[in-house]
Amino acid sequence: ETGVTQSPTHLIKTRGQQVTLRCSSQSGHNTVSWYQQALGQGPQFIFQYYREEENGRGNFPPRFSGLQFPNYSSELNVNALELDDSALYLCASSAGLDRTDTQYFGPGTRLTVL
Amino acid sequence: SQQGEEDPQALSIQEGENATMNCSYKTSINNLQWYRQNSGRGLVHLILIRSNEREKHSGRLRVTLDTSKKSSSLLITASRAADTASYFCATDGSAYKLSFGAGTTVTVRA
């Protein structure tokens, strides 16, 4: 059984650019959630996908968008990057939507916007 | 805004001592979870406690939950250097998302 993986590990972009981050869910998991973690803060929920459909969204602007593929891997896209988008981006997969389903986190992608 | 607030923000203890950190939250919950994060990497799930439970144990971890006070505590007994990490509580006030606090940074000195 493989864990949650994310790519790339680190990324440096400039303001106004676009970025795509990728996440492979743990085997057998059909739900993926994305979080943004600024330095010194806890993770903030961006959105969740369940069986390729968006299932909920946090307080993030539309320039944050996502996709989930038939194999349940996922992408987070951010357009028109701003300096405040610099953060650790975490994805987490779970076996379903039950509140007790543990969310398993990947190692994260560290995004720096200059 | 963060749903949970951990206290203290930072904690430094000697190896072998116990570490206690607290979490307060604002809205009703179904479950409360604790996660550990090493050096800005991914979060590792430690324990989940349901709203109808008052105490739960897992190895050297003890979690309590007081829903009347909207608070929880995490106790790590006989701490080790490997316990050095940031600890976060997360609540599930909304069905599809976890809301995290800002975390407690624990340093275990040898």
Account of the protein in words:
The complex is a heterodimer of chains A (114) and B (110). Helix content of chain A is 0%, strand content 50%. By secondary structure, chain A is an all-beta fold. In chain A, the strands form 2 sheets. In chain A, strands 2, 4, 5, 6, 9, 10 and 11 form a 7-stranded mixed sheet that branches. In chain A, strands 1-3-8-7 form a 4-stranded antiparallel sheet, with no helix packed on it. In chain A, strand 4 and strand 5 form a beta hairpin. The mean pLDDT of chain A is 93. With 110 residues, chain B is mainly β. Chain B contains no helices and 11 strands. In chain B, the strands form 2 sheets. In chain B, strands 2, 4, 5, 9, 10 and 11 form a 6-stranded mixed sheet that branches. Chain B has a 5-stranded antiparallel sheet with strand order 1-3-8-7-6, with no helix packed on it. In chain B, a hairpin with a 5-residue loop joins strand 4 and strand 5 (43-50). Chain B is globular, with a radius of gyration of 13 Å. The model of chain B has no long low-confidence stretch (mean pLDDT 92). Classes of the chains: A mainly beta (114), B mainly beta (110). Chains A and B meet through strand 5, strand 9 and strand 10 of A and strand 4, strand 5, strand 9 and strand 10 of B.
